[in-house]
């Protein structure tokens, strides 16, 4: 190792950084030298400073949203605990899935043992909005390599998408060429992720202590969340036809067919209605 | 303890969720979906949410339905957090006085 440092010194690199660069496991000496020259140069220093600032900006932007999701995380954790999930299982679920809407839906129909196919299908349907969200980000993300984009997309939830997309559009209007800021997006995403995974687990731990939360009306929190989400997605009276079809079909199935079939029948009926309507009214797009 | 059925369900959920996250990007990198499919995708999350809400709408319990109506009115005007608090308060109050 000493010899390598000498080599590097011979090439004109300061040793303070050389030690750091030699600790990285990948690549040969030459690559380490190149890497380290990048981190040592003034431009690179400026750039890493900018990355840090962008991260900070993302953290700051996500802060109010994080506070907003704390109660839902706690409610979800408590509801999951009521369905018999251990705190560790809640962390496992919310940490890997990280999509609140689908988790609320899954917990609503969770049983012991859970119906894997039903819940997986539900999760797909609830999260199918990610397809649209990812599609809107696609033009912004094209300049990044896939190995960066694919992990980053793991953290794309409603809130991080909204923050990142809005920020990118604002920067476009300010005339910034590479408008989407990955550091901003990741700063915001990681805050949201930590808050969500941490607080759902806390809810699962604290939930049983609180006992039957129905008397406090806590179970109304989930329909309330759904109603607010629905308002956010309201497509206008004309385009909301599929929702009406869903509601009617789901209500009928709930009243007349035992089991949880109302969710599937309502959704599928609505999707069919949307498909038929979509052909008739191109303005929907 | 991680029960295997719970773990399996969580893993399945996580897999399809990640799939939805990358598929939109992957599919639309260079292409566009047909307008008809886009319109279906746009209302799909709402269809699911409405279907999940349906039992609350037709629950037949006066207190719950009144609370849901109050929550709906709140949801039309207020952001997420106040709506949830109002919904919970309404449910607690109506249940206390009507049952």
What do these coordinates show?
Chain A has 285 residues and is mainly alpha-helical. Chain A has helices at residues 2-10, 15-22, 29-40, 42-82, 87-97, 100-108, 116-126, 129-141, 146-153, 158-173, 182-210, 221-233, 241-256, 261-280. Chain A is globular, with a radius of gyration of 24 Å. Chain B is an all-alpha fold and 99 residues long. In chain B, helix 3 (62-77) packs antiparallel against helix 4 (80-98). The model of chain B has no long low-confidence stretch (mean pLDDT 87). Chains A and B meet through helix 4, helix 5, helix 6, helix 7 and helix 8 of A and helix 1, helix 2, helix 3 and helix 4 of B.
Outline the secondary-structure elements:
The complex is a heterodimer of chains A (285) and B (99).
Chain A: H1 2-10, H2 15-22, H3 29-40, H4 42-82, H5 87-97, H6 100-108, H7 116-126, H8 129-141, H9 146-153, H10 158-173, H11 182-210, H12 221-233, H13 241-256, H14 261-280
Helix pairs in contact in A: 1-2, 2-3, 4-6, 4-10, 4-11, 5-11, 6-7, 8-10, 10-11, 13-14
Chain B: H1 4-27, H2 35-57, H3 62-77, H4 80-98
Helix pairs in contact in B: 3-4
Overall SS class of chain A:
mainly alpha
Helix-strand pattern of chain A: HHHHHHHHHHHHHH
SS field, number of helical segments of chain B: 4
The sequence of SSEs of chain B as H and E is HHHH
Tell me how many strands of chain A there are. Answer: 0
How much helix is in the residues of chain A?
over 70%
Q: Summarize model confidence as the mean pLDDT of chain A.
A: 80
Identify the quaternary structure here: heterodimer
Short description:
The complex is a heterodimer of chains A (285) and B (99). Chain A has 285 residues and is mostly helical.
Question: What are its keywords?
Answer:
heterodimer; A: 285 residues; mainly alpha; 3 domains; globular; B: mainly alpha; 4 helices; extended
């Amino acid at each position: 190792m000493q010899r390598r440092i000498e080599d590097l010194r011979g090439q004109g690199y300061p040793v303070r950084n050389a030690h750091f660069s030699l600790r990285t496991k990948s690549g040969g000496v030459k690559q380490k030298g190149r890497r380290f020259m990048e981190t040592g140069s003034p431009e690179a220093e400026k750039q890493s400073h900018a990355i840090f600032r962008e991260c900070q900006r993302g953290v700051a932007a996500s802060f109010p949203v994080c506070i907003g999701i704390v109660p839902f995380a706690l409610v979800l954790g408590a509801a999951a605990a009521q369905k018999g999930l251990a705190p560790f299982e809640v962390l496992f679920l919310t940490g890997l899935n990280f999509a609140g809407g689908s988790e609320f839906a899954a917990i609503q129909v969770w049983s012991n043992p859970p119906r894997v196919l039903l819940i997986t299908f539900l999760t797909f349907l609830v999260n199918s909005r990610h397809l649209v969200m990812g599609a809107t980000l696609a033009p912004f993300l094209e300049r990044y390599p896939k190995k960066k984009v694919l992990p980053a997309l793991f953290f794309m939830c409603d809130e991080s998408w909204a923050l990142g997309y809005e920020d990118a559009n604002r920067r476009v209007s300010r005339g910034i060429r590479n408008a989407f800021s990955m550091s901003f997006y990741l700063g915001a995403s990681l805050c949201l992720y930590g808050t969500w995974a941490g607080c759902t687990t806390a809810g699962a731990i604290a939930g049983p202590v609180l006992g039957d939360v129905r008397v406090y009306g806590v179970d109304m929190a989930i329909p309330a969340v759904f109603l607010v989400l629905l308002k956010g997605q309201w497509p206008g009276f004309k385009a909301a036809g599929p929702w009406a079809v869903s509601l009617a079909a789901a209500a009928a199935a709930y009243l007349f067919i035992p089991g949880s079939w109302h969710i599937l029948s309502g959704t599928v009926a609505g999707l069919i209605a949307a498909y038929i309507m979509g052909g008739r009214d191109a303005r929907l797009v | 303890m991680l029960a295997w059925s719970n773990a399996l369900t969580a893993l399945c959920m996580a897999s399809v969720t990640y799939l939805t996250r990358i598929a939109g990007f992957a599919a639309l990198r260079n292409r566009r979906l047909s307008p008809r499919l886009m319109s279906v995708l746009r209302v799909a999350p709402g269809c699911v949410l409405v279907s999940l809400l349906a039992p609350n709408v037709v629950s037949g319990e006066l207190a719950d339905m009144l609370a849901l109506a109050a929550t709906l009115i709140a949801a039309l005007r207020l952001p997420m957090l106040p709506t949830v608090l109002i919904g919970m308060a309404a449910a607690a109050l109506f249940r206390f006085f009507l049952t």
